[in-house]
Amino acid sequence: MAELTKKGIGGFLARQGILVAFVLFMVGFALANQRFIAIDNIFGVIRSSAILGVMALGVTFVVIGGNLDLSVGSMMSFSTIVVLDLHDTLGPTLAIPAMFGLTLALGAFIGFLVGYLKLNSLIVTLGMLSAIHGLTLTWSGGQNMDIADKEGTWFGIFGRGDVLGVPMPIVIFGTLAIVLSLVLSKTPFGRKIYAVGGNGQAATFSGIPRARVVFFTYLISAFCVATAGLLQASRSLGSQNTVGQGYELEVLAMVILGGASLLGGSGTIIKTVIGVLIFGFIENGLLLIGLEFYVQDVVIWAVIILAVWLDIAAKRGRLWSPIA
């Protein structure tokens, strides 16, 4: 009985441990600073998490498909710089679709390498992280980018506007989450992604075009990155050319916190949204209790390690390795 109870507790923590940890974090932050549970703070956390959340939605498709995308941070910097630069040369009406087209071209190139050439996604996207960063610096001439006439443009509506009092970034994040959730859970394409991520070889033998499915997961990821870049550019109306640096690890952490497996074949958009909020509230709580930024990085690193550990534990049904 004791062994059964032990396994039961271990199995529960393996499956729901990150939510238990989140509840403990929330209680601790609320006790440390009453402002943490204020409505305006909660609303602010959701708004500030929306940009990374949009990126996490796309990465969820890639991870469920059994691959990784470490290029999203550099790609977000690229899309932000491009749309800001083209804003003053082409105008926002043409700049936005041009930026989306260029960002989707990068996603298509990665999807071709991983899907059709069957190259390792970790190596490809790690290499593209550096390549896209170099492309961004080349495009910008190493300079930061700003819109010349910030008062006379309607471009700020995406990052600064609202719909019935709800900030536009939250509206876009929520709408995109609903649409992509339906695509993933209610369409044949969504079921193919789960099949490819769960067992790519079996999916191929079943007649599923694995290469095409992987290719389109990277296109979806690129579309979400372009949307995040649009929100970032619209919010600040100017940007550093390294604005997305480091975001790839934060976005991946959000996806894993939401329950998507690094091994592929499992995860949902709704759980990714929960993972985004978990990550956002933990960062906000650390800020409110006064931790220095370098201490926050250590805590966030620990959360990422915990998420990966629980991901592997959930697969084997126990917290510890059976050979440990």
Descriptive report:
- The chain has 324 residues and is mainly α.
- It contains 13 helices and four strands.
- A two-stranded antiparallel ribbon has the order 1-4. A two-stranded antiparallel sheet has the order 2-3.
- Helix 1 (2-32) packs antiparallel against helix 13 (293-316) and helix 3 packs antiparallel against helix 4.
- The longest helix is centred in the first third of the chain and has 31 residues, at 2-32.
- The radius of gyration is 20 Å and the shape is globular.
- Mean pLDDT is 86; it is low at 1-6.
Strand content bin: under 5%
Biggest beta sheet summary: 2 strands, antiparallel
Give the overall average pLDDT.
Answer: 86
Which structural class do you get from the secondary structure elements? mainly alpha
Gross geometry:
globular
Q: Approximately how much helix is present in the residues?
A: over 70%
Q: Sketch the topology as an H/E string, one letter per element.
A: HHHHHEHEEHHHHEHHH
Helices and strands, with pairings:
Blueprint: H1 2-32, H2 39-64, H3 72-90, H4 92-116, H5 121-140, E1 145-146, H6 157-160, E2 162-163, E3 166-167, H7 168-186, H8 188-198, H9 200-205, H10 210-236, E4 238-239, H11 247-257, H12 269-288, H13 293-316
Antiparallel strand pairs: 1-4, 2-3
Helix pairs in contact: 1-12, 1-13, 2-7, 2-10, 2-11, 2-12, 3-4, 3-5, 3-10, 4-10, 7-8, 8-10, 11-12, 11-13
